[in-house]
Amino acid sequence: MLRLTAQEDVPINKVQQVLRTDVAFSAEVLRLANSALIGLRTAVSSVEQAVVLLGLERLKALSMTIAMRDFVSTPKSNSTMQACWKYNLVTAIICEWLAPLLAFQSDACYTAGLLHDIGRLAILRSFPEEYERMTSVIQNYDFDQLRCEKDLFDIDHCEAGHWLLASWDFPADLQEVVALHHRQPGPEIPELVAVVHIGWQIADMLGYSPFDLRSVATIEEITATLPEKARQSIFSGLDGLAATVTQKLAAGELVQA
Question: Which of 75, 83, 136, 243 has the fewest Cβ atoms within 10 Å of its own Cβ atom?
Fold first, then answer.
């Protein structure tokens, strides 16, 4: 779906054909399309209608939500992996909320936020017990998550995520997000990476970090590199954001039923 929608002038009927190849997948698309996660005012009752009403970018984001859910739904899946999946979903919702404040495309920001920690999910999927034990010793590394991962697994989750997305031939901007989302925003950091960096730190601030590794930065510090107008919009909208996250998260988690 990602490769197809990345093409210019892709025929709508080709997108519909891809969705129809997997009945369970298309059913999940329709279910989420009618949920608060998407927030459409019109009911979606068919694949054809979903493609028309959602548009390719939103359909891509929705497809990634389902694919990511399936990625963590394995026999080894545990509460920690589910908490990490929830964290990625919350970060996606926050990045989508940030997008218009920073003149970005909402669905692109949602997808970037959803994927940002896929490397951690991959390590957790491969070494669930070992990764959970890591969290008990991370204080010995001054709570430096990336250094701790590197020492224990020979790869940190940013490197793992970049390797995965490169292997799957994902777009370069998403590869940059997973590789660089722990870097402080600056002139040399791509703007989409900066949005996701702010997004996951706000997710931490709202209490959604799956471990006791959350950022201790204040909202003033998190948004310090943004234009003043955008900062004030974020400050004034935080209370409403918490409610939006709660509502959309509940809708998004239903996809796991």
Answer: 75
Q: Are 201 and 217 in contact, with CB atoms under 8 Å apart? A: yes
For residue 118, CA distances in Å to 35, 69, 104, 125, 143 come to: 24, 11, 22, 10, 20
Query: Which positions ≥6 away from 136 have C-beta within 8 Å?
Result: none
The pLDDT tens digits of the residues spanning 201-233 come to 999 888 888 876 666 678 898 888 888 999 999
CA dist 108 and 176 (Å) reads: 13
Distance CA 73, CA 86 (A): 12
Structure tokens at 172: 């370069």
Q: How far apart are CA 97 and CA 206, in angstroms?
A: 14
Given a contact cutoff of 8 angstroms between Cβ atoms, the answer to whether 231 and 223 are in contact is yes
Is the pLDDT at 257 greater than 70, yes or no? Answer: no
Residue 138, helix vs strand vs coil: helix
Please write the tens of the pLDDT for every residue from 56-102. 888 888 888 888 887 777 666 677 888 888 899 999 999 999 999 99
Cα(257)–Cα(254) distance, rounded to whole angstroms? 5
Which pTM was predicted?
A: 0.86
Side chain identity at residue 241, one-letter code: L
pLDDT per position as a tens digit, 64-74: 888 888 777 76
In the Cβ-directed half-sphere of 1, how many Cα atoms lie within 13 Å? 25
> All domains of the chain, ordered by start, with CATH?
1-72 (no CATH), 75-256 (1.10.3210.10)
